[in-house]
Write a structure and sequence with these properties.
- GO terms for molecular function: ATP binding; ATP hydrolysis activity; copper ion binding; P-type divalent copper transporter activity.
- 48% of the residues lie in helices and 18% in strands.
- With 817 residues, it is α+β, with helices and mostly antiparallel strands.
- A seven-stranded mixed beta sheet has the order 17-29-28-27-18-25-26, sandwiched between helices.
- The longest helix is centred in the N-terminal third of the chain and has 37 residues.
Amino acid sequence: MTAQLPEPPEGHCFHCLQPLPDDGALKVKIAEQEFPVCCYGCQAVAHTIAEHNLLHFYQYRDTSNPLQIPLLPEELTELEAYDDPDLQDEMSYQVEPNSSNTARETTLSVEGITCSACAWLIERELARLNGIVKATVNASTQRLTVRWQPDQVKLSQILQTVAGLGYRALPFQAAQQELDFKQKRRYFTKRIGVAGLATMQVMMLAFGLYFGVYNDIDPEIRGFFWWVSLIFATPVLLYSAQPFYLSALRSIQAQRPNMDVPVSIALLGAYGASAYATIIQQGEVYFESVSMFTFFLLLGRYLELLAKQRAVAAAANLIKLLPALAERELPNGELESVAAHKLQVGDIIQVKAGAKVPADGELLSQVATLDEHILTGESKPLRKTSGQPVYAGSINQHKSLRARVTASSQHTVLASIIRLQDSALASKPKLAQTAENLANKFVSRLLILATLTFIGWSFYDPEQAFWITLSVLVATCPCALALAAPTAVTGAIHKLNKHGILLRNADTLNRIQSIKTVVFDKTGTLTNGTFSLQQTWVDPNAPFAAESLLQLVGKMELTATHPLAQALAPYAKSSASPIPVRNVEEHIGSGMTAEIEVDGTWQAIRLGSLSYICEWHPNFVPASNEFQVFLASQQEVYLALALGDSVRAEMATTVQALKQQNIKLVMLTGDQWAPAQQLADQLQLDQVVAQCSPADKLNYVTKLQQQGAVLMIGDGVNDGPVLAQADIAVTFSEAADLARTAADVVLLQGKGSSLLQFWQIAARARTIMRQNIIWALVYNIIIIPVAVAGFITPYWAALGMSASSLLVLLNSLRLYR
């Protein structure tokens, strides 16, 4: 029921309290009351305040001095500050910065989330706003990831909508998150302390009564002990159990009752009945059950909070690794200290020895040694030379370095890693969704079961009906089922991050056990993708020298995306006589085309694979099967090149470990048959398919999926479609953007063993998740008939339910070891 709002002084505006105009007042209807306002502005503001559930602004303001009353509640004025473009650049990022799509995305910390019902309510209400592209709430980390169109909805409106539901959402900050966790720990510690002290006192009296120590005492003395128990149990009910009531009310508001609904009913019912028995001095009291139940449940929530904190600490630590200040060079060569988030693309920065790099950039110094373990999990420092990328968060190991900023703030690699981790935490595996749905449905059915139990026992033994019903509500509360999946998922993500593995889609934890085939790309996946020229063949009748042809190839490969281009592009700087070239174009999966000037005329040429060249020269046979790259005109083949590559570190041992699990191993590559078969024999793969176009790869994987789930690992632009098709897509951090976008898993270390680590951790996480769900279901299936039959008292019901939840939590914590 809405509280009655105070009337304004007669003849004054309800909102601003200024005199009403002589020609009459407008009306505003709020909380089923009608008030006069002086203008359309006050009318609109009053409606806005009501829409955001901020009526306390009117209820508690002091109207004695209208000039000192603010015209807007603090909640509205504070949130509007987040619409400032500069502030949004610091805490959000444009999803597609180089396109017309203006959608932005940010991560918000939300206070007050207790369960999946809270998450569902926030997601549902935000989805109703025009301009919201996506809103995903992770109840475990209490974070909201929201993507919106700034031209349709303001960020302040999003924050106000969340505030209107009874939650407080603000941009995520690592330091603020740590402060919030400390406050929550104190919040629970105080309530646990009160419940623990009261439980000891009440149990001391209750055990005496249970075992008949006071059986021969006067009823008045027994009544005195009841009153003492009531006094100790009251602060437990009103103070310690408060989190359960708030959570229950929110879930009812969301029309999705959670497990705190039966908990609250049981606590209030047991306390109310015991208090009534104490007052009339007849019946039974269960103050010890109220106190003990609250204590155990709070203890479980506290341990759950610690587990969540441990799971998200890694992401928070990543953010804190970015330095607050950066040293930026001025045009005159002097240095100035600026906030790291204010660095712009193109700025020149200096990083002292031992300091952290504040933004992504291009190394300008001749050489530098950097520790990138926070990005890759690899502790060995990397030596980099001029022109190579340096990443925000990495540590400069030796002398001072200079770099040109290429990305800062929300656009750095480190920021993208954090976003990937948040995305994984927000997503839910199907197994987790199933458990969550079971828990939500279980609560409503539990309330029905408790009602039927009370009705049945009312006919059989009316004196026991109430207490047996309480035992059913407490013992069968599905807390363990609700914790089963989220705790395992957060544990798995934390473990994977420690090994330099980013999970973009948490459902891969559920799909890993169904994988029957692992498909590898060759170049850049099984091999390092760092080629060098091994052998050259030139047609004796070619109109140009070998050096000039190599220079031409280098020029054409400057803009190419294939891994071979990195080995050939440097030849563009050759001092050989240049060949005029124009209209260079890349054809993904085939090669490149261009036009060159030969004896005063322009001729079309092709650069690419053998199959691509044979479209012009079907009878051409290379001098050796080692050649992979060919240059030809429509009249003749000018050049053939053989480039060598090395097997990626630890890939051989990974392949052997997968073979031992009876996994079929297949290589799909666009390279020639001879080098592909040679590598397949070296690694002992089961099957190799060479000279594949992107369409061929896609069709082949689709056929393999008819025999079972497929995991695909690739890194090239042409691997994007097939990665999207695979059941689980894996790529490396240095992969092309299209491959990373399609991947479910990103391996940061660049080692073959990372794939095996992912496989093992994911399989273990799924096992623990299934164990948790099975245990929770088995416990509830066994305890339901026992509780309905009246064999469990509320005290033992509370102990059993709490023990079940703690067992699930402890089982999930094994993933952290």
